[in-house]
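Please check our next protein.
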Amino acid sequence: MQKIIYRALALSYGAYFNSTAFFSEKEAGRKAFGLFSTPRKGRVLPTQEAFLQKHLAQRPIINELALQTYHWPGPGETVLLLHGWESNTFRWRNLIEKLQEREFNIIAFDAPGHGYSEGTSLNVVTYAEQAQHLIDMYSPKYIIGHSMGGLATIHNHYQYPNSSIEKIVALGAPAELSELMDHYQKLLRFNNKVLKGLDKHILENFNHRITDISTPTFAKSFSKPGLIIHDELDTITPFSASTRLHENWKNSQLITTTGLGHSLQQEELYLCIVDFLNS
């Protein structure tokens, strides 16, 4: 029943965007982007509070939003963690344990509209920019991103190749914004006029076209070491996203898992990440 309701709601949004586009392509694109960028979950749950509140750190104001950071102090090199869509810093708890065992200095933050951070929307361009503010603040040597956080991590390195980052880890990261938009269009069944309005909205507000956001394209210019991790049975982000990224990233390794799904939560896997950072 819940799936039926969700499907009906999606189609109603698509019909609304189509009717809006009949009168204004620009307005249809703005509204479609607003829905696309609005998370439905990802705020801190009661079961997550105890872990996160012990490590609350600064709340820097970035693009007029207070973003919640977390700190697990250590004498070693600094690592910055970026969670994925509709998630928050709690998703890193098991990796943080392994990083602490190796005495890394760990920084994480909740993206806008997620966790304890302000805001109601999130997109990959602003996520990458906000990550750069944190990189400027903490000078991490390593950066790790999951899912949308992995996409933002790669986009960040493409935009800011001369930052303090020396190694990059991407887990289950999407490859192309165009593929995400294609799925969005098929789910809602909005027409190409809406899609055109979406593309124009992104260009006018973020100086990118939909086709510009491509991790395989970005990776062609990368020289720093990268570790790419993806489950071949991932139902959220196709495994091919990481194989294409790996093919174009000359100094990268690809770890393939089976059965871990999109979350990629496994002790052995996290030990591989720690070993990669220490190598």
